[in-house]
Design a protein that fits this description.
mainly alpha
Length: 620
Amino acid sequence: MSAPGSGPLVILQASGFFVLFCLAFFSTGRVVLGDYWGVSERPSVALLNLLCSVAIGLFLFSLWMIFFGALGWWHAWAVYAFLGVGISLLILRRRETGEDLGPLFRTETYALSRWEWAIVLFFTILAGVTFIAAQAPVIGNDALVYHLYFPRWYVETGGFVYEPTHARSLWPSFIGMAYTAALLVQGTALATLFSWLAAPLTAGLTFLTGIYLFRDRAVSFLALGLFLATPVVWMQSVYPYTDNAVMLYLFLSYLAAWIWKIRGYGFKDAFILGLFLAALVSAKIFGLIPAVLLAALHLWGMLRSRSVSWRKKSLSSFLAVVVCLVFSGFWYGRSYILTGNPVFPFLSAWFGSGFEQHMVGFHILPKTLLNLLLLPWNLAYRVDVFGGEPLGALPLMVLPLCFFFLDFKKNERVRWMMFFTTALAIAWYYSIQHVRFLIPALPYGCLLAALALRRWREKPDFLKKITTVVLVFAACAHYALSAYYPLKFWKPALGLIPADDYLIKNERSFAVLAKIRPHLKPGEKILFLNEPRLFYAPAGTVCLDNTVLWMCRQRGISLIDWIRESRFRYLLAWDKDPAKLDWKPYLGPEGALELRSRELATDRVTTPEESLYFKLWEIF
């Protein structure tokens, strides 16, 4: 067990790889996307094509990795081959078309006012602060439970291999394919940068959508300013998680669906829509919920539309669905073939396979009508209730203006966006009330709030002045909060704190493993009794949970038979109460009778999250 590297050399290496990958994403994505947003001299259209090409390129890269992983060829050369293809396509396109993207990144291309420059400056600062913070040694529950654990597992096994002791082994994870590539060529710093990429891409798309859909530059800058003032997005960007990716690909799916509609349900537009939807439902199982909501919204629109024949609408819709299934259905088909449940272990009552999965934690409020009405207040001022990551009060302060200043009847763009945002919020409220699962609704909410704020500022001069003062102070406070949290990762990222010391103080699984390491014999396996964080554990470590019990029932063997078959040498448990440290309750009466143990170590670890006692046994 050793910590990931850190320091300036690691940052330089990871950043260099990241730039090369972004160039490869752009060139490969551009081959598929082309001039999807239209051919224009306007910088906004060129930037839209650029950002969407990078997003599609990232998804294509995941498909590339899946193909080689399925063949058992996951090696660094497969990753370098993609980079070679991408850079070659970039050079060839430059020679053939003479395309020059340089002007898009020059300040003279844009005539910005002072307040617009201020927002651009805040965007640059937040992106830079989080870019460095993302390269710190990885902590965080989900990252170490499965987001990075399975990429590590794939690297160790050399292929796209199912792990039957872990329910999340079957979850869709196209971002995990990028993480796998990162571990093959660099490490966790590059992996987290792939996660970081979704935040600035979505911020840029939010800004450009204001220009493209609403033809209003002020709305675009206000929407970007509101988006930057949501700390949860930037907090998520420094972990190798998937929630920002869901936000990105849902937003792209929404925009693609709108373009598909207003252009007359063309087949090329249907193909692009299918790709974005495939990326959405490949990023996370919960991506299915907004995908269904988006489909329902456009089905309603198709029923009301009379300008295009039903034959064309039906065939185009069918094409979009087929493309989505072809490029994402294998995740769910794989789960169905192996377990009989395409969304294992969820919906076990429907599919007769799996078990009740408790994804709703203690921080959830009762789902009553009163709490629904109080939701904006609670989201802004009861951060701890929703997982500790603040959504921020600024967008919620402005959103109520939508009901007074937006014309839903006459403006179809506004009406559809409002319906979809509301549907996302309600679906979130009645499913998993963790604020990071609400992130996908942010771009729409920020655009709507910006439209309303733009109308509000058309009021008398004194109201504009008051509004400006309040917004400036509120925005600065939120930007400071967005930057403050990632800054705590700078010291370990820059190597000012040794990686091992940082992880021992901040990551419980690493701290415990560091203390028990002298007691472990090389090559012997550990069974964690109640700790799912496996990334830093030795190879072969398993966490005892419902998936293991389900697997044993399916195979018709006892838990003790499986433990012996798997040749575990050690049992490890930890708890806040030292009196509860006993392995026998975990294995039941049969285990207490059939296994003998010898206690090797007992101690305590303390991190900013908690203080825990642990105990290690050797079993016979």
